[in-house]
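Design job #97: recover the sequence.
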Protein backbone atom coordinates (compact mmCIF):
# COMPACT_ATOMS: atom_id res chain seq x y z
CA UNK A 1 0.00 0.00 0.00
CA UNK A 2 3.03 2.28 0.19
CA UNK A 3 2.76 3.04 -3.52
CA UNK A 4 -0.92 3.94 -3.21
CA UNK A 5 -0.26 6.14 -0.17
CA UNK A 6 2.56 7.88 -2.00
CA UNK A 7 0.33 8.61 -4.97
CA UNK A 8 -2.38 10.12 -2.78
CA UNK A 9 0.20 12.20 -0.91
CA UNK A 10 1.64 13.40 -4.23
CA UNK A 11 -1.83 14.29 -5.49
CA UNK A 12 -2.59 16.35 -2.39
CA UNK A 13 0.78 18.07 -2.55
CA UNK A 14 0.36 18.92 -6.23
CA UNK A 15 -3.07 20.43 -5.58
CA UNK A 16 -1.87 22.53 -2.64
CA UNK A 17 -0.90 26.15 -3.01
CA UNK A 18 2.39 27.22 -1.46
CA UNK A 19 0.42 28.64 1.43
CA UNK A 20 -1.56 25.42 1.97
CA UNK A 21 1.31 22.93 1.83
CA UNK A 22 2.25 23.19 5.49
CA UNK A 23 -1.39 23.44 6.57
CA UNK A 24 -2.31 20.25 4.72
CA UNK A 25 0.52 18.47 6.53
CA UNK A 26 -0.90 19.60 9.86
CA UNK A 27 -4.44 18.61 8.87
CA UNK A 28 -3.27 15.17 7.77
CA UNK A 29 -1.25 14.71 10.93
CA UNK A 30 -4.16 15.73 13.15
CA UNK A 31 -6.63 13.54 11.30
CA UNK A 32 -4.19 10.63 11.33
CA UNK A 33 -3.70 10.97 15.10
CA UNK A 34 -7.44 11.08 15.70
CA UNK A 35 -7.96 8.09 13.44
CA UNK A 36 -5.37 6.10 15.39
CA UNK A 37 -6.25 7.17 18.92
CA UNK A 38 -9.99 7.79 19.14
CA UNK A 39 -13.34 6.29 18.24
CA UNK A 40 -13.12 8.09 14.89
CA UNK A 41 -11.68 4.92 13.36
CA UNK A 42 -14.74 2.93 14.44
CA UNK A 43 -17.04 5.54 12.92
CA UNK A 44 -15.11 5.83 9.65
CA UNK A 45 -14.65 2.08 9.25
CA UNK A 46 -18.31 1.29 9.99
CA UNK A 47 -19.94 0.15 6.73
CA UNK A 48 -23.40 1.06 8.08
CA UNK A 49 -22.53 4.74 8.17
CA UNK A 50 -22.86 6.50 4.82
CA UNK A 51 -19.85 8.13 3.22
CA UNK A 52 -21.69 11.45 3.37
CA UNK A 53 -22.14 11.12 7.14
CA UNK A 54 -18.49 10.12 7.52
CA UNK A 55 -17.46 13.19 5.54
CA UNK A 56 -19.67 15.37 7.73
CA UNK A 57 -17.94 13.98 10.84
CA UNK A 58 -14.53 14.74 9.35
CA UNK A 59 -15.66 18.23 8.31
CA UNK A 60 -16.33 18.93 11.99
CA UNK A 61 -12.71 18.02 12.77
CA UNK A 62 -10.62 19.58 10.00
CA UNK A 63 -10.55 23.23 8.94
CA UNK A 64 -12.84 24.15 6.07
CA UNK A 65 -10.37 24.13 3.21
CA UNK A 66 -12.24 22.99 0.10
CA UNK A 67 -9.23 21.33 -1.54
CA UNK A 68 -8.52 19.32 1.59
CA UNK A 69 -12.20 18.42 2.05
CA UNK A 70 -12.32 17.25 -1.58
CA UNK A 71 -9.25 15.13 -0.92
CA UNK A 72 -10.86 13.49 2.12
CA UNK A 73 -14.06 12.98 0.14
CA UNK A 74 -12.03 11.20 -2.56
CA UNK A 75 -10.41 8.94 0.06
CA UNK A 76 -13.83 8.06 1.41
CA UNK A 77 -15.26 7.46 -2.07
CA UNK A 78 -12.37 5.18 -3.04
CA UNK A 79 -12.40 3.41 0.36
CA UNK A 80 -8.86 4.59 1.03
CA UNK A 81 -9.42 6.57 4.23
CA UNK A 82 -7.81 3.71 6.13
CA UNK A 83 -4.52 4.79 4.50
CA UNK A 84 -4.61 8.18 6.24
CA UNK A 85 -1.66 7.32 8.52
CA UNK A 86 0.55 6.26 5.62
CA UNK A 87 -0.54 9.19 3.47
CA UNK A 88 0.25 11.59 6.31
CA UNK A 89 3.72 10.05 6.72
CA UNK A 90 4.47 10.20 2.98
CA UNK A 91 3.19 13.76 2.72
CA UNK A 92 5.42 14.80 5.62
CA UNK A 93 8.43 13.21 3.92
CA UNK A 94 7.66 15.09 0.71
CA UNK A 95 7.32 18.43 2.52
CA UNK A 96 10.63 17.82 4.30
CA UNK A 97 12.28 17.09 0.96
CA UNK A 98 10.84 20.27 -0.58
CA UNK A 99 12.01 22.32 2.41
CA UNK A 100 15.38 20.53 2.44
CA UNK A 101 14.93 19.25 5.98
CA UNK A 102 16.60 16.01 7.02
CA UNK A 103 15.70 13.91 10.01
CA UNK A 104 18.37 11.89 11.74
CA UNK A 105 18.52 9.57 14.69
CA UNK A 106 21.72 9.75 16.72
CA UNK A 107 22.49 6.57 18.64
CA UNK A 108 25.08 6.96 21.35
CA UNK A 109 26.30 4.80 24.25
CA UNK A 110 25.88 7.78 26.60
CA UNK A 111 23.84 10.93 27.01
CA UNK A 112 25.02 13.63 24.60
CA UNK A 113 25.17 17.28 25.51
CA UNK A 114 23.04 19.61 23.43
CA UNK A 115 26.21 21.05 21.91
CA UNK A 116 27.48 17.59 20.87
CA UNK A 117 24.12 16.67 19.35
CA UNK A 118 23.93 19.94 17.42
CA UNK A 119 27.46 19.46 16.09
CA UNK A 120 26.58 15.99 14.82
CA UNK A 121 23.33 17.27 13.29
CA UNK A 122 25.21 20.15 11.65
CA UNK A 123 27.67 17.71 10.07
CA UNK A 124 24.84 15.76 8.43
CA UNK A 125 22.99 18.92 7.49
CA UNK A 126 26.06 19.94 5.48
CA UNK A 127 26.56 16.43 4.10
CA UNK A 128 22.99 16.40 2.73
CA UNK A 129 23.06 20.09 1.75
CA UNK A 130 19.95 20.59 3.88
CA UNK A 131 18.51 23.79 5.28
CA UNK A 132 17.81 22.15 8.61
CA UNK A 133 18.55 18.91 10.45
CA UNK A 134 16.07 17.60 12.99
CA UNK A 135 17.37 14.95 15.31
CA UNK A 136 16.40 12.49 18.00
CA UNK A 137 18.82 10.82 20.37
CA UNK A 138 18.71 7.20 21.44
CA UNK A 139 20.98 5.62 24.05
CA UNK A 140 22.46 2.17 23.36
CA UNK A 141 24.98 1.24 26.04
CA UNK A 142 26.22 -1.77 24.03
CA UNK A 143 28.01 0.53 21.56
CA UNK A 144 31.02 1.16 23.86
CA UNK A 145 31.89 4.52 22.25
CA UNK A 146 31.32 6.63 19.16
CA UNK A 147 27.95 7.23 17.54
CA UNK A 148 25.72 5.70 14.94
CA UNK A 149 23.59 8.04 12.83
CA UNK A 150 20.57 6.95 10.84
CA UNK A 151 19.48 9.40 8.18
CA UNK A 152 15.73 9.05 7.59
CA UNK A 153 15.90 10.73 4.16
CA UNK A 154 17.55 7.75 2.52
CA UNK A 155 17.68 5.22 5.37
CA UNK A 156 21.46 5.29 5.39
CA UNK A 157 23.30 4.25 8.52
CA UNK A 158 26.57 5.97 9.35
CA UNK A 159 28.25 3.79 11.92
CA UNK A 160 31.25 5.36 13.64
CA UNK A 161 31.09 3.27 16.80
CA UNK A 162 33.98 1.55 18.50
CA UNK A 163 31.98 -1.70 18.57
CA UNK A 164 31.73 -1.71 14.76
CA UNK A 165 35.39 -0.79 14.31
CA UNK A 166 36.42 -3.65 16.62
CA UNK A 167 34.20 -6.08 14.71
CA UNK A 168 35.80 -4.95 11.44
CA UNK A 169 39.27 -5.65 12.83
CA UNK A 170 38.33 -9.11 14.05
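Job complete. Output follows.
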Amino acid sequence: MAVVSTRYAEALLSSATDKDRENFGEYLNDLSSLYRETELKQTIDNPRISKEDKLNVIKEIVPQNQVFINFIELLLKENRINLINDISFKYSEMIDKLNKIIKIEIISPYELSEKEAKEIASKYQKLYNANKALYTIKIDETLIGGVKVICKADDKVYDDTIKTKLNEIL
